[in-house]
## 1
Amino acid sequence: MSAADPTAPLSDAEIVTLYFARDEQAIRRTDEKYGPFCHRLALSILSDSRDAEECVNDTYLKAWNSIPPTRPNSLQAFLGRIVKNISINRYHENKAKKRNRDFDLSLEELAECIPAPDEAADALPALLNEFLGQLPAAERKLFVGRYWHGYSMEALATAYGLTVNAVTLRVSRTRRKLRAFLTERGYTL
C-alpha cells in the first residue's frame, strides 16, 4: 500500500485488500476514488440527489458485505453494477411519483430490442459486450450514455455538441442494429 503518502489514491487492488482485511478504510478509499462516479450513475437514474446518496451508501454496504469472498477484477465495474441495480430498484419504488421520465423512456426504448430476461439471462451480457465492441466509439458512447447511465437525449446532445435530433436518430439506429444483431444470434422478442 501507499505508505509514503496516506492521502494518495490507492489502486483497486489495494482497496480490495483493505476489504479483505476488513479495514473500514476500504469504504473511505472507495468513496474517495469512486464516489463521484457512483453518485453520477445513481443520479442519472433517480434524478434526486438524496435518493442517489442513499443508493451510493447502500452500494458501499453491499460492497463491504460482498468483498470477501468476491474479488472483483474491476472495482469500478463492480461498484457500477451494484449502484445501478440498487438505483433501478429505488427507481421502481419511486415510479408512481414519475420522478425521472427520461430513464423511463430509455427503458421503454431498450425494451424494443432486448429479449425478456428469462430468455437471455446468461448469454445477454456477453452478447451486449460483443455488440458494443463492434460499434464506432461515438455510437458506443451515445448508446452507453443513454442506456447504461440513463442520460436524456438533451444531456447527450449537450455533452457531444450535437442536436437532440441527431442524438435521437443515432441512438435509434444503434437500437435497430442491436435488435438485428440479437436476432441473428437467435434472440427475438
## 2
Amino acid sequence: MLEISQIDAGYGKIGVLHGLSLTAAPGQVTCVMGRNGAGKTTMLRAIMGQVKTTAGTIALNGTPLNTLPAHEVPRHGIGYVPQGRRLFAELTVAQNIEIGLMTRHKGPETRDYVLSLFPRLRERLTQRASTLSGGEQQMLAIARALCLEPAVLLLDEPTEGLQPSMIALIRDTVTTLKATGVAIILVEQRVDAVLSMADQVAFVAHGTLAETLPAKGLTKSAPQFQAYVGV
C-alpha cells in the first residue's frame, strides 16, 4: 500500500502541496482530479523523488520513499508514466523496453508479459520510438514502466490526445493490472475515462486533498466535477 501523509512540497520558495494525504491500495485504481495547477503532477513527482517534500511522509508498505534519492524510488517498485511520455526517442522500441527491464533486473519473462499486453509493440521492436504514432508511444511508455513489475503504477494524463480505440486499450490494460494487485494512481481530466476505470476518485484543490469518493454511483453530473474540475 502506498501511503502519502500530510506532505508539503513545491519548487524553491513556491509551495504547491500543503498537507496532502492520499492512500492507494493494491488492486485499486485511484483517479486524481483537479483543475490545472492544483498540484496533481507535483504529487506524482514528489512520490518519485523528483520534487523534494519539506514535510510529511510517503511510504510503500511501511518503507519510507521520500528520504530516498530519485533514482532509488523505481527500484522499490514504483512505475511512472509522465505526461508527455518522455521516451528515448532515438532508441528503438526494444531498447526502450530493455531500459525498463534493467531498472529492477527483470528478464525475458517480464518482457514477454509486457509485450502480450501490447501486441502492436512486438511488431515494432526495431522501430525508433520517435516514429511511432501518439497512441503507440503511450503504449511504449506504459510498457517500459511495467517492466519494473511495479507494486504501484503512476499514470499522468495517459489518454490525452488519443483516439477512442487507444483510450479503450489503456482502460483494458489498467483493468488487467488491477486484477493482478497493482495499486494505480491515475491523474486524469476526462470524466468518462475516470468513471470507467476508477475505484475511488480523489479531488485535489489548492495543493491538498479536498474530497475522496467511491467511483461507484458517481455520474458525469456529480457536483464534485463542477466544483473541483470545472466540467
## 3
Amino acid sequence: MAMRRYMPGVEIRLWARREEPLAYAKENGLADICSRELLKAVSGAELVILCTPTGTFLDLAKKFEPWLGRGAVVTDVGSTKGDAHAGAGSFLKEKGHVFIGSHPMAGSEKQGIEHAQADLFKNAVVAMTNENGAGESDLVRLSRFWLELGATVFTTTAVHHDSLVAGISHVPHILAALAARTALADQTLSVDDLRVMASTGFRDTTRVCSGSPELWTNILSQNAKAICPYLEQSIADQQHVLQLLKEGKHEALQQWLAEAKKTRETVC
C-alpha cells in the first residue's frame, strides 16, 4: 500500500502460502501479481522482501534462490537480525546474492493484511544490518527504498540490534503478557467486575500482548540470548520493589518510580 502511494510506477508482486490474503490484495489493487508460486513473485525482481516469520527465512530462500536475479537485493522485516543473517543471509551470500537485514519499528498488535496502512512507515525508524557484507551501492539502494516510504534509516550491527529490541520491544511484550495474566491472579475476583474496572491504563499496558502468540513465540525464542539478561534484571527489580512495599519504605518506592519516569521520558 505504501509503495502504491509513494512509488506508483513500481511493479509489485505478492506471494503467500494462503489464497485469502492474495484475494484481498487482488480485490483492493495492492499488487500487479498475486500468486502462490514463488517463481512468479521472485523472477526478475530487483528487491525481494521477506515478510514471513523469521524462522522460515532459510527454507524460503532455498526455494526461491534458483529464480533470484544476480542484481537483486533480498531484505526482510523481521524482529531479530542475528538468525536472519546466520541463516538466509549466509546461504544467499554463498550463492552469490545480496542479503541486507531490515527491521521497521512500526506496526501494531493487529495481524493480517486487512489491517495494513499505507502510512505505516511514515516517520518510523527502519534498522538496517549488513552482517553478510553487502556493497555500498546495494546499501544505498535499500536505504532509498525505505526513505521513499517516509521512514528514517538506522544502520547498526545484528548483535546491537537484537540487544536494543530485547530491551525496548521483546521484554516489554513479556511484561505486558505478565500484566494481563496477573489480572486474574486473585481468583476470588469476578471477571465481569475486572472488565468493568479495566480502563486505559490496563489497556495501554497490555495492548501489545494481543499480538499473535505463534509469531511472538518465534521472536522471543530466536532472541532469547539477548532477552534473558534483561528479564533477569527485571525479575531482580520486581523483587526489589516487592521488598520496598513489604517494608513500607515509601521514600525509596517514590525514588524507584521517579527513576522509571525519568528513563521513560529519556527514551521516548
